[in-house]
Design a protein that fits this description.
The protein has one domain: Rossmann fold (3-Layer(aba) Sandwich). Helix 1 packs across helix 8. The chain is globular. It is α/β, with parallel strands linked by helices and about 240 residues long. Strand 1, helix 1 and strand 2 form a beta-alpha-beta unit. Strands 3-2-1-4-5-6-7 form a seven-stranded parallel beta sheet, sandwiched between helices. The protein has eight helices and seven strands. The mean pLDDT is about 95.
Length: about 240
Amino acid sequence: MSTPRTVLITGGNRGIGYAIAEEFVTAGHRVAVTARSGEGPAGSLTVRADVTDSAALDAAFSEVEQKLGAVEVVVANAGITRDMLLMRMSDDDFDAVVDTNLGGAFRVVKRASKGMLKARFGRIILVSSVVGLLGGAGQVNYSSSKAGLVGMARSITRELGGRGITANVVAPGFIETDMTAELPEAQQLEYKKSIPAGRFAAPSEVAKVIVWLAGDDAGYISGAVIPVDGGLGMGH
């Protein structure tokens, strides 16, 4: 059992974020999630915030600090997609995705780092994607935002590594969520063929890796990219 920590997960009201929050609750941590709508799992505190809005994030952090204590573990998970071919992608399609996925992580980590520096302890976990380094056709905006998280974690590691703070990236592959469930059967089979494990991951398989990274046993891991992709992105 790891030391109980105060954990904040962005975008914790559905999909992988919800599973991450559930796993931290099960492991006995004090858990808060940010959500624009909906709620986190039972046993978690839900605070309203949009990761593109610094003031709203600041207020959300203050509420968590007041109710659960200073945030010791932050999981930047909130993300959006606007997939389309490069030729058809508007500036807004690009900017919106980068501002949420990369800018959102920056704002959350910057605010969390205040308390972490004071405590001389912190775990920063950025949720990227296999396409961040493997690439994905029709995903120039999304893959750029997810690749940027790697540079972010490594720069934070160089800046804050001597203060008991780690920063790592988890890069999931195809996960069984509402999004993948909507794909046509033939397309799902095609994707599974390209994955050495031959299947999609359960959200809990990503969540368990993140909980472990936040725990006492992972204190000497920083600046790493940990794939949870069934072997899809090997070597990237």
